[in-house]
TrEMBL record:
InterPro entries: AB_hydrolase_1, AB_hydrolase_fold. GO terms for molecular function: hydrolase activity. Its main location: cytoplasm. Belongs to the AB hydrolase superfamily. ABHD14 family. This is Alpha/beta hydrolase. Keywords: Cytoplasm, Hydrolase.
Amino acid sequence: MSVRSQFLTFKNTRLHYLEVGAIAAKTVLFLHGASFKAQTWQELGTLQLLSDRGYRAIALDLPGYGQSETVNANPQTFLLDCLDLLKVEKTAVVSPSTSGRFSLPFLVGHGDRLFGFVAIAPVGIPNFIEKLQGNSVPTLAVWGSNDRIVSPEQADLLVKVMSNARKVIFKEAGHACYMRATDPFHEELLAFLERCT
């Protein structure tokens, strides 16, 4: 099954996403950081890998990135609205860096729509620590040991307050640790998703 390039209409603008896998399969939604886009996950082979393992993988270009138009999206409701438009009831979200401004409010407000959360050094963790206290969504915190943008100490913070979280630190990797440690990242991601499903 090949990766499909598609668009959804969000507040009269077009948001682009890549999708692969059976519609009825468990869905994993990939977001991206400021230097990347949905296509990054295709180039790394992540989307195809997940499809081959029986998942439906969706990579979304955030507003103003990749092929998505710019739109003023409310961080509190953006992912919820997108999932509803995609007709996805429950998903796991993979959230690196900048995308934390959308994924963390979603994790706090709509954890019932998540069967897993993969936090790849997302921005904004300290702002949500109180609200994440005791949150039981299965969570994998993935960091590079050399991350100078979001300190690996924030992984400890996340794991400490959430009741079902563990961390993985990739040695010698930076902020976008999955770019340098792609194979180990894929192994950890697949193992995590297997435990969640």
